[in-house]
Design brief:
The structure holds two protein chains of two kinds.
Chain A (H helix, E strand, L loop, with lengths): L3 E12 L2 E12 L3 E6 L5 H8 L7 E6 L2 E2 L4 H7 E4 L11 H11 L4 H15 L14 H12 L6 E5 L7 H16 L3 E5 L3 H4 L4 E6 L2 E6 L1 H7 L5 H10 L6
Chain B lengths: L3 E10 L2 E11 L4 E5 L6 H8 L7 E6 L2 E2 L4 H7 E4 L11 H11 L4 H12 L15 H13 L5 E5 L7 H16 L3 E6 L10 E6 L2 E6 L1 H6 L4 E6 L3 H9 L4 E7 L2 E6 L5 H8 L6 E4 L4 H9 L1
Parallel strand pairs in B: 3-8, 3-9, 6-7, 7-8
Antiparallel strand pairs in B: 1-2, 1-4, 4-5, 9-10, 11-13, 11-14, 12-13
Chain lengths: ~250, ~300
């Protein structure tokens, strides 16, 4: 089914005799906001590195936007978007220059970039700021800009790492609105986070404990299953049983 | 006498008013939370109160001592845990503790009872270098070191940032324990849900305090009818709901959008007005600290 953007089966990664990721299996569908949670040390980062083509699995299979995680890491890197929890645009370049830099890295031509950058800025209502230095923008704007730049090459899936940590409640909501809009158009969002309130925005959430995916469902069904009223409650019930330290 | 008294305190960095005319008091034995996002001025306020910075104007007292005049006296009476891990990574757990005890002329054994609720979690690792500890363990060591000279007031700057939900909850249990021992605690956090663990909180943003009260009272002061709405397309729902009659505000709030309404709102007419929205659900919900924060910011 081509509606599946990420698919992994029994994906495993060992470092020596330590199994960081232990036979995980799941599918992520087009237009989903998929939350990927786990305590410190649960194996989230290792799993995500495999999905982003930065590390190869020890065993198991997986595909991301149609490319094999075992053999096509470079193709995966070119085809996904990634927004890090640390602000990673260049403060001493303008908005426009940042867009050109990242578009160039992803191999867009000058003509394509101009068209795409103009379109993205217009959508953000941000055309008037194209020559502003990114360093002088307010935090909320920097974040929105980071997201649109992560989508400059029209990736089918964007990986977000704690996208709204430390941001005020209004800016945080503007950010999620932008994410909803992107998913409406078919972009898939893969979010890793420590913030349980970010988990509440996800269509489905998986929770990793000791290298395994211990729960995977919609936030509503998980809360019902664990008889608690928040994702924080679900997370605590699952993570308390962890054997592995942080 | 309050443990912390702050009067019209201000501090600017170039054009930025990091702390802008802030006044409030923290009573002895209180667990007081500064709740706000990055840039709210939380760290600057901590640095002013712990005498690491001088204010541009206004004044403040900590445990009866003026933050400018009596800065030396304050330093031995307060415990400060900065937002960044600032212990020595190449000293062991035990060496760090002994080092900070020596700096303050304190004795680890005499302070043991006070630090025990925190230190006992990391004591089995006392020979491990601090740099090799996990995030949650580093945080416990930092708190132990901040307590070693038995301060009367404890300043904790975002102690739970970047820590997973289980460790966060444990950390708040430890704070409750320290409060029982009579310590006054000023703690900052960007997590709105942690506000509920405090006796009183100040909601702050861009250098200013938006309001101060008990968490319960702040929630009560929201005083608006609130609904939670959801549908298959959350984005279309948001756009449509904002235009409906009697809707004052509508914003994403996890699985549902929160809908703030006035007297002109009626559930049945609202459903009709929205038209063909697939899977629409609407339920009455209780307001939270975060709803109040949004209201105060607007």
């Amino acid at each position: 089914m081509n509606d599946v953007v990420i698919s992994v089966r029994e994906l495993t990664k060992c470092f020596g005799d330590f199994t960081a990721v232990d036979h995980i299996s799941f599918d992520v569908h087009r237009g989903e906001i998929f939350g990927f949670l786990g305590a410190n040390g649960a194996g989230k980062t290792t799993a995500m590195r495999m999905l982003c083509g930065l590390s190869y699995p020890t065993s198991g299979t997986g595909s991301v936007v149609g490319y094999d995680v075992m053999h096509e890491g470079d193709k995966i890197k070119r085809s996904i978007g990634y927004m890090s929890q640390r602000f990673s645009l260049y403060n001493d370049l303008t908005v426009w220059e940042n867009m050109f830099l990242f578009a160039g890295i992803y191999g867009l031509t000058k003509k394509e970039t101009e068209k795409r950058a103009t379109e993205l800025l217009a959508r953000l209502n941000f055309a008037s700021e194209r020559d502003t230095l990114v360093g002088s923008l307010p935090l909320g704007w920097k974040q929105k800009l980071s997201f649109v730049i992560a989508t400059i090459h029209r990736p089918r899936v964007v990986f977000l790492d704690e996208p709204t940590g430390g941001v005020d409640p209004i800016t945080r909501r503007q950010f999620w609105e932008m994410i909803y809009e992107a998913t409406e158009e078919g972009t898939t969002i893969f979010v890793t986070t420590h913030y349980m309130d970010e988990a509440e925005y996800c269509s489905r959430v998986s929770i990793m404990v000791d290298g395994e995916v211990r729960a995977l469902d919609t936030p509503a069904r998980l809360k019902k299953q664990f008889a608690t009223d928040s994702m924080d409650g679900v997370f605590r019930i699952l993570a308390r049983g962890a054997h592995r330290g942080e | 006498m309050s443990a912390i008294e702050i009067h019209n305190l201000s501090k600017c960095f170039a054009k930025t008013k990091a702390v802008d005319n802030v006044s409030f008091c923290v009573e002895k034995g209180e667990l007081f939370g500064l709740i706000g996002p990055d840039g709210a001025g939380k760290t600057t306020l901590f640095r002013l109160l712990t005498t690491l910075l001088n204010p541009d104007s206004g004044n403040a007292k900590v445990d009866g001592c003026d933050i400018v005049e009596d800065y030396i006296a304050i330093r031995s009476r307060v415990g400060y845990m900065p937002g960044r891990f600032s212990l020595y990574p190449d000293l062991t757990v035990e060496e760090n503790l002994q080092f900070f005890a020596a700096l303050f002329g304190a004795d680890v054994e005499e302070s043991y009872e006070l630090i025990a609720p925190v230190y006992k979690h990391i004591e089995p690792f006392r020979a491990r270098r601090a740099g090799k500890l996990s995030g949650g363990m580093k945080q416990k060591l930092a708190l132990s070191c901040a307590l070693i000279h038995r301060p009367s007031v404890l300043f904790l700057d975002e102690p739970t940032t970047g820590v997973d939900a289980v460790s966060r909850s444990e950390f708040w249990d430890m704070l409750a324990c320290l409060k029982e021992k009579g310590l006054t605690i000023l703690v900052s956090t960007p997590y709105m849900d942690e506000a509920l663990r405090c006796d009183r909180i100040a909601l702050c943003n861009e250098g200013r305090v938006l309001c101060i009260d008990t968490p319960k009272e702040i929630i009560r002061r929201f005083e608006r009818k609130l609904y939670g709405i959801s549908a298959k397309s959350m984005f279309r729902l948001l756009e449509k709901a904002r235009k409906a009659t009697g809707v004052e505000d509508c914003y994403p709030f996890g699985e549902k959008h929160h809908l703030v309404v006035n007297d002109k709102f009626d559930v049945e007419s609202f459903k009709i007005e929205l038209g063909d929205i697939e899977g629409l659900q609407i339920v009455s919900v209780e307001s939270t600290i975060e709803d109040m924060f949004i209201k105060l910011m607007k």
